[in-house]
Design a protein that fits this description.
With 555 residues, the chain is an alpha/beta fold. It contains 26 helices and 10 strands. It has a domain of 229 residues. Helix 9 links the parallel strand 9 and strand 10. The chain is globular and about 75 Å long.
């Protein structure tokens, strides 16, 4: 910004404007709250002044909380290289998208991860056990839990731990040659290991970790600490990649829970206020850094438009719009097919199937080989119940690439809608035999599972559990099919399998308790109802069971 002047302060610099500059800004079109008040009823899109531009083909390294994960697929759709999407973990090691296992929530975590990567980068790029040992918690059975990864990542042998960390390094080290670094802090409640001084992904979770409670502390990060660590993280990258442009933004996603004695709304407001202020300070302290106001867009727009009903997650449609706004302001040279595809994704997520169809066709008119646009076109046609047309479109996509599990799954949905359940089931089973089959592909089969017989849906559910035994979504679909087919005995057996998982969901535990209670197996029902409430004290079904079971909390 041409009028930017600074004065050093205790925790950063102050921005100083001359009287003439301040008068000029006062007269700008969006300088008064009343100028934007009407937008709060719909969608807020703040005025931006980008200091750099991005182009398709450039590498954007993303680091941050789950909101950063939501942005990544949209950036890839615009033609960017997004290294974090290349992070992979076997399905028996993590029950979600691999990039989510490496979420970073606060500035100390950014600094710690980037400094770890830099040390190995500056040495030889080869991860050794001494690089891993400070973050490797010995579980006592020859395996180690990674304190820097999500709690649901399984412990690994020393050899596998090193190999997994080498993969993490290979992905993270791309930041030192990236064109843009996108940083998204989300919260200030940070857990730290007193033995090593390092920050952990989250609170202690493993049984042996809980056996040493004195080792772990919760730190409510101060504003100066966040400023220091975010600047240090930026400097780590800039020292090795001086030309990288940086985009910072505060995650709008609120605290799921607070570990303090404060109301979660107050704790969340404190967290976001600190991080939002920190983001502005780094703009003054370093060159070529912009702030992108996704936080303001999500929190000040109409909640019915921007947020899912849980008020924890921004809708995919609104995320698409945020990236579309980023496209309008920060990107140049974007192929028309990519822009139309992104528009089609957003429209379909909003439920505008006909408009999404038109945008997908526009993308294909520019680039006939755009496989993602063709698959999305099939989905838009199915949303309009034009099943036969969808089958033809998806057949063309599969002819071009028979190994695309997402295309084959959508074909199964289209066949089920066309009244061809046997073909749909076989196509779904064929999908599950592909190496690219994931839990997200399984979830995309939901429309088909609702249309085929309970026996067929159960067949698919059993195969999913066999392939993805750590993913609770597989059990949910099998249990639904079994109850739909009145196969209560097998449903109970499957729910007992769920109860034995490391992280059983409260809903399924409550469902097991309810079913056992109806069968008169009260003692076991009490155990599972109590476990459901321990997982989620507000679970409605488990709470309803308390009275019927004589308060399982006391069982």
């Amino acid at each position: 910004m041409q009028d930017l002047k600074t004065r050093p302060g205790a925790s950063g610099s102050s921005r100083i404007l001359t009287y003439a500059e301040a008068r000029r800004h006062k007269a700008s079109a969006r300088s008064r709250w009343r100028d934007v008040a009407e937008e709060l009823d719909t969608e807020l899109w703040p005025k931006l002044s980008p200091s750099f531009r991005l182009r398709p083909g450039q590498t954007v390294f993303t680091i941050g909380s789950c909101f950063a994960r939501n942005i990544e697929a949209n950036l890839e759709a615009l033609g960017c290289k997004v290294p974090m999407l290349g992070l992979s973990l076997p399905p028996d090691e993590f029950d979600g998208p691999a990039n989510a296992a490496m979420n970073k929530f606060h500035p100390p975590a950014f600094r710690q991860s980037l400094e770890w990567t830099a040390r190995i980068h500056d040495r030889d790029g080869v991860v050794r056990w001494e690089d891993c040992e400070p973050i490797a918690f010995d579980t006592g059975d020859g395996r180690y839990f990674d304190l820097d990864m999500a709690a649901t990542v399984t412990p690994a042998t020393r050899e596998r731990f090193i190999a997994r960390r080498q993969h993490v390094y290979d992905v993270f080290s791309t930041v030192f040659r990236a064109d843009c670094l996108m940083i998204t802090p989300g919260l200030i409640e940070a857990w730290r290991d007193l033995e090593t001084g390092l920050y952990t992904y989250g609170p202690p979770y493993e049984r042996r970790m809980l056996a040493t409670p004195e080792r772990w502390v919760l730190e409510i990060l101060s504003y100066p600490r966040c400023v220091e660590d975010l600047l240090a993280a930026i400097d780590v990258v800039r020292q090795r990649n001086p030309e990288v442009n940086i985009l910072v933004t505060t995650s709008p996603v609120p605290l799921t829970r607070t570990f303090t004695d404060r109301d979660v709304t107050v704790a969340n407001a404190h967290s976001k206020a600190v991080l939002r202020a920190v983001c502005d300070v780094v703009l003054l302290e370093r060159e070529r850094i912009d702030y992108f106001p996704s936080y303001e867009m999500a929190t000040l727009s109409n909640p019915a438009i921007a947020w899912k009903r849980d008020r924890l997650h921004v809708t995919q449609a609104f995320i698409g719009k945020i990236v579309g706004y980023m496209l309008d302001n920060y990107f140049e040279g974007v192929e028309a097919a990519s822009a139309q595809y992104l528009r089609a994704r957003t429209l379909l997520a909003e439920g505008h199937a006909l408009e999404a169809e038109a945008a997908a066709l526009a993308a294909l008119a520019v680039r006939p080989g755009h496989a993602d646009a063709r698959i999305l076109l099939g989905r838009a046609l199915m949303a309009q119940q034009r099943w036969g047309e969808a089958v033809d479109v998806l057949a063309a996509a599969l002819e071009a690439d028979p190994e695309r599990a997402d295309a084959k799954a959508q074909m199964a949905n289209a066949l089920a809608g066309s009244g061809l359940p046997e073909q749909a089931v076989q196509t779904a089973l064929d999908t599950m035999s592909l190496g690219s089959f994931t839990v997200s592909v399984l979830l995309s089969l939901d429309p088909m599972l609702r249309r085929v017989s309970p026996a067929a849906a159960a067949q698919i559910g059993r195969r999913a559990v066999e392939l993805l035994p750590r993913h609770v979504e597989t059990y949910e679909r099998l249990v639904d099919a079994l109850f739909r087919g009145d196969d209560v005995d097998e449903a109970i057996a499957v729910l007992r399998q769920v109860a034995a998982l490391r992280h059983p969901p409260a809903d399924l535990l409550a469902r097991l308790a309810q079913t056992l209670m109806e069968r008169g197996e009260i003692a076991e029902a009490q155990v599972h109802a109590k476990a459901a409430l321990a997982r989620d004290p507000r679970n409605k079904q488990a709470l309803a069971l308390r009275g019927l079971l004589g308060d399982p909390a006391a069982a």
